[in-house]
Amino acid sequence: MAHFYRSPLRDQDFLMPVNMADWLEEGHLAYFLIEVVGRLDLATLHARHPNDGVGRPAYDPAMMLTLLVYAYCGGVRSSRRIEASCRTDAAYRVICGGMVPDHSTIARFIVDHQGAMGGLFVSGLRLCAAAGLVDLSVLALDGTKIGSDAALDRNRDAEWIAARVAEALAAIVASEDTEAASPLFAGPRAELATRRGRLALYESALAVIAAEEAAAQAEAAGRADAAHAAAKEGRKLRGRKPKDPAAALERAKADYEVAKARAEERAATRAALEADARSSGRNLGGFLPGPDTKLAKASEALAAARATAEAAEPPARRTANITDPESRIMKTKDGFLQGYNAQAVVARNGVVVASTVSQDANDVELFVPMLAQVGRTLKAAGIEEVANLILADAGYWSAANATAEGPPRLIATVKDYKQRQAAREAGTTSGEPPKDASALEAMEHRLRTQEGAALYALRSSIVEPLFGDHKENQGWRRFRRRGLVAAEAEWSFMNLVQNLGKLFDHRGALAVPPTR
């Protein structure tokens, strides 16, 4: 029995439309991005290509940027895969007009224009605001750990790195440094391709270790000075005792000085009373003072702290990553990774209004800087509206963050599941917090009100989808290039792509139909 199929006619002439503009349907994402990128402020990109007629003309920066945005929208970040798609994918070919930029050209474009990514993000946010997509009624702040282009097992101590520095210097001297900069070494791993590049990385890693050691020593000295200064004033420092044995020993010494001074003061007072009694010919009443128990306890604590410090093993050597010295070891729910802490502030409808990348693994110190970043970004985008409320999880909780200047905020004081459990046990409340409530008590009161609980419940649905899309849908679990500046640039570009995607979803709000 014969079969009847619709078979491809591969030898047919003009299988594709003659006009490239007809290759894609109306309203395709590629046509939308071509138009929208043309509305961004690209002055910084054009500034790198003066019209002096020297050399081969560069690719149009607007075309290159559109190409990258479209590739990122599809989760494609490899410059080689982008080049291959320019040969085979109709949408890529429409964007490039049939031209095929080399993968090295694409990679160099990313490197050359990394400083412009922050401005492009602001320009994209301005477009979102013009389309009415920036809803500042509720903002949510959160961070996620994103890996660097470096392995966790490439962390080395100062001794190992110093030996490699000596070897690299000897090799450079022996070879008279015949290695020259070459286009072959361009790309994200160019710094590892030459001896001088590797030497620079080793020296950067040593500088990181030296800076961390100096900061730790300064912090320890500051704590010890504060404890001894308090001891001179006859008072003890309050707060949790330090865990480090050396720091705990200094604290115990200061506490012993206070106890000793107070014991001597009490003994002097007793002696003065006894002398006055003898001179007046009377007996001093009361019981004879026994051993000073407070001084004895302080002495025992000092002896124990000294024994602990002497028995303690030497502190672990500080290390730095020799592939990406600016990255840090970050703790996640799945273990540790070598990378950065990527922060984002997201509006209620999913538009990112501020972002940054930090080396600090903890979020608590990033709350106030992110508030300032929101203000700067909104001002640069020409958005005069101010945020009504900002939400943050327990990682940002501190009394200082709760009372810092800025918009009203709800910051969880404990993890979300504990917050819900405490709310069930304590029940709901209403009204404003008591006037004498501490920052912690006031925040917990607001979170237990029906309005506060309902508003805080919005946090996860506002900010978590951003990280879920970046990591799960797009596969952006590590940055493509090394260094804090490069990571910051790519994070800004990722969030620019996110915002342009929101524009595409709401393209009916644009003044001009985003077709072709």
Short descriptors:
single chain, alpha/beta, 6-stranded mixed beta sheet, 18 helices, elongated
How many strands in all?
8
Distance between the termini: 48 Å
Radius of gyration: 32 Å
Overall mean pLDDT stands at 85
- Based on secondary structure, the structural category is alpha/beta
Return residue spans where pLDDT drops below 50 for at least 5 consecutive residues.
180-188, 511-516
What percent of the residues sit in helical stretches (DSSP H or I)?
40-55%
Strand content: 5-15%
Provide a count of the helices: 18
The ordered H/E elements are: HHHHHHHEEHHHHEEEEHEHEHHHHH
Largest sheet: 6 strands, mixed
What gross morphology would you assign?
elongated
Descriptive account of the structure:
- By secondary structure, this protein is an alpha/beta fold.
- Among the domains are: 93 residues, no CATH class; 178 residues, no CATH class; 78 residues.
- It is 51% helix and 9% strand.
- The protein contains 18 helices and eight strands.
- The strands form two sheets. Strands 1, 4, 5, 6, 7 and 8 form a six-stranded mixed beta sheet that branches. It has a two-stranded antiparallel ribbon with strand order 2-3.
- Helix 13 links the parallel strand 7 and strand 8.
- The protein is elongated, with a radius of gyration of 32 Å.
